[in-house]
Design a protein that fits this description.
This protein has 565 residues and is α+β, with helices and mostly antiparallel strands. The strands form nine sheets. Strands 9, 10, 11, 12, 14, 18, 19 and 22 form an eight-stranded mixed sheet that branches. It binds 2-acetamido-2-deoxy-beta-D-glucopyranose (NAG) (5 copies).
């Protein structure tokens, strides 16, 4: 919705580049090269200035990675829950000696020696001068861009690599993609959204715990349990806000009031709404569970914060079991090479028994205004087949904690890039067959990965930020940590029984066919504001639907369904 301005330009851009850059080998020709509206140009980078680039080296055994993930995540497989350590993941995917040698030779040939790798050896991060970087990557020209008091360095044009390394690299990070650039998927909107709607008392931990059937005894007990939120915005949570929030709202159940560990740089300044929301709510449903914050892990001007977080996960042998993230980009703005590689990173995490939860977005089905006609606009990583994507709901009657309906902003739809994974074929076909009214076929790709997978309340939250309680905070940024905390509680009960973590949940979630979830069957989300669909995307239906997935958690029932095996 917000980024309408770029849509036709982007297409033109990709087409032009295809013709224009004929020499050299391009790893990401389909990556959109365009400065987002909110960043302003701040001059060419001096040749002697330092930049840091991230090289994603081709991994080995990607097919096996995918097969193994299927086995460890399928409750009917003998290998269910037999997760790998980071060291074992390393021996599976680490690049071949030929790949490592070829890439090193190329880098050293340009005098680049200052590089760091990760445990799995499939990323290299190297510093060099802008001059060296421009020689290394023909086509590039590094510039500085500003947004508020943030600055970053990016190339204003596509890059190519030497033909010798072309088949040994997936992509080079720190060249083209702008960090979130205000496109973070879920924005924790503030302010009453529906004028004329009855006054709502608002969602608090007590309301959530009542609705999702959590009793005072449903808190974490296991010593080694942990959960995390990851954030890539220039904003921070304040420990004092968390403590204040807990003292006001978290009554009647034991909980923690402090974050266990902050990984990354917590800047100063005012607390952010989004950052406060995530941490306050994951610690309210996942109560008494050790919680980490991964914050803005990309401080160098050339880094990509999201990618930087993925590198961190591949470089830490002990990380929390559940991660919730409210971040995403239009699928059509990212190169396929990049998204495929990020998917491999999600598979690596799943193989270790880590659950990745992403917010489904706050623009419903989205809308991409193409020259001739509109189409829906999926976002990534929400559309990745290897993460669990969380949509949003609101209470039908704001004075009762019972019936949930679609929150019209709830992101959902069908990927145009990733094929529908096997685990969801039955559920999605049933929806497509049974749906009373579907948008025209030209708006979406019915063979793509469909999302979200489940949902939770996303409307009218109370959040404490800068020591002030704020009402009406909404978005799938709210529902995602709520679901994350609930999965952590289930992990906790599993750990107490000596069972492994839930890991990549989807294969098991779809086999439950809705057991343990409140089915959401009412309401439609946003789509394109044109004559054909008149602002409407998809509608909720019984069982799975591309608006609220399988529905929202009924904790005791979901626990019962996920506690065996
Ligand atoms: C990965 O961790 C090792 C050991 O702590 C460290 O030396 C290395 O610099 C890290 N890699 C990156 C890319 O930060
Ligand atoms: C959970 O909540 C629902 C609705 O609030 C209620 O009907 C149900 O009995 C509760 N308990 C269980 C175990 O599902
Ligand atoms: C909270 O969790 C810890 C383990 O991290 C456990 O030892 C403690 O008993 C839990 N508190 C309660 C009230 O159960
Ligand atoms: C806790 O889990 C981590 C892996 O996430 C493991 O390395 C560590 O040994 C575990 N600690 C205990 C006390 O079980
Ligand atoms: C639809 O999705 C499939 C993969 O799921 C892809 O191969 C195909 O190109 C997509 N079609 C369109 C029109 O985007």
């Amino acid at each position: 919705m917000l980024f309408v301005y770029t849509k036709t330009m982007r297409v033109l851009c990709v087409l032009l580049l295809g013709v224009w850059l004929v020499s050299g080998e391009h790893l990401e020709l389909d990556q959109v090269v365009l400065v987002p509206e909110d960043w302003t140009h701040a001059g060419r980078v001096a040749l002697q200035e330092e930049v840091e680039l991230t090289f994603a080296l081709k991994q080995q055994n990607v097919d096996q990675l995918q097969e193994l993930l299927q086995l460890v995540s399928d409750p009917d497989s003998q290998q269910y829950g037999k997760y790998l350590t980071l060291e074992e993941v390393e021996s599976l995917v680490r690049p071949s000696q030929l790949t490592e040698k070829t890439v090193w030779t190329w880098l050293q040939g340009h005098g680049i020696r200052n590089c760091r790798t990760v445990q799995t050896r499939d990323f290299l991060q190297c510093t060099m001068t802008a001059q060296v970087a421009e020689n290394l990557l023909p086509g590039t020209e590094f510039h500085r861009y500003k947004k508020g008091d943030q600055t970053i360095i990016r190339s204003s044009s596509q890059y190519s690599v030497h033909e010798d390394v072309f088949e040994h690299l997936d992509f080079v990070g720190g060249v083209l993609r702008f960090p979130t650039s205000g496109k973070e998927i879920s924005k924790a909107w503030e302010g009453p959204r529906r004028s004329g709607k009855a006054f709502h008392l608002g969602v608090t931990p007590t309301v959530l715990r009542a609705r999702y059937n959590l009793t005072a005894a449903d808190i974490g007990h296991a010593a080694n349990n942990s959960q995390a939120v990851a954030q890539f915005l220039e904003q921070y949570y304040h420990p004092a806000d968390l403590a204040e929030f807990m003292s006001i709202y978290a009554r009647g159940f034991k909980h923690l009031t402090e974050v266990e560990r902050v990984v990354g740089t917590q800047g100063g300044g005012k607390a952010g709404l989004e950052a406060s929301l995530d941490i306050e709510y994951i610690m309210s449903t996942g109560a008494n569970i050790s919680t980490w914050v991964f914050t803005n892990p990309g401080r160098h001007e050339t880094q990509e914060p999201f990618l930087q977080w993925m590198l961190l996960l591949s470089n830490m042998s002990a990380v929390p079991w559940v991660h919730t993230i409210s971040y995403g980009d239009d699928e059509d703005s990212l190169s396929t090479a990049y998204m495929n590689r990020i998917n491999n990173e999600f598979m690596k995490a799943g193989l270790r028994g880590i659950s990745m939860l992403f917010a489904s977005g706050d623009s419903g089905a989205g809308c991409w205004h193409l020259t001739k006609e509109n189409v829906f606009r999926p976002s990534f990583p929400a559309s990745s087949p290897y993460v669990t994507t969380v949509g949003g709901t609101s209470f039908k009657n704001p004075f009762k904690l019972t019936y949930e309906v679609t929150d019209f902003i709830s992101g959902g739809g069908f990927s145009n890039v990733f094929a529908m994974p096997d685990y969801q074929v039955g559920a999605v076909s049933a929806y497509l067959k049974g749906a009373k009214s579907l948008p025209p076929e030209s708006y979406f790709n019915r063979s793509g990965r469909a999302y979200p997978d489940m949902a939770a309340l996303s409307d009218n939250y109370w959040v404490v930020t800068n020591l002030v309680p704020i009402p009406w905070v909404s978005g799938t940024s709210a529902s995602t940590p709520v679901v994350g905390g609930i999965l952590s509680l289930i992990n906790d009960q599993r750990f107490l029984k000596g069972l492994p973590s839930l890991g990549f949940l989807n294969p098991r979630l779809y086999k439950l066919k809705g057991t343990g979830l409140f089915d959401v069957t009412e309401g439609c989300h946003l789509g394109c504001l044109d004559d054909k669909v008149e602002g409407q995307g998809f509608c909720a239906a019984s069982s799975w639907d591309p608006v609220t997935g399988w529905g929202t958690p009924n904790y005791p029932a979901l626990l019962a369904a996920l506690i065996e095996k």
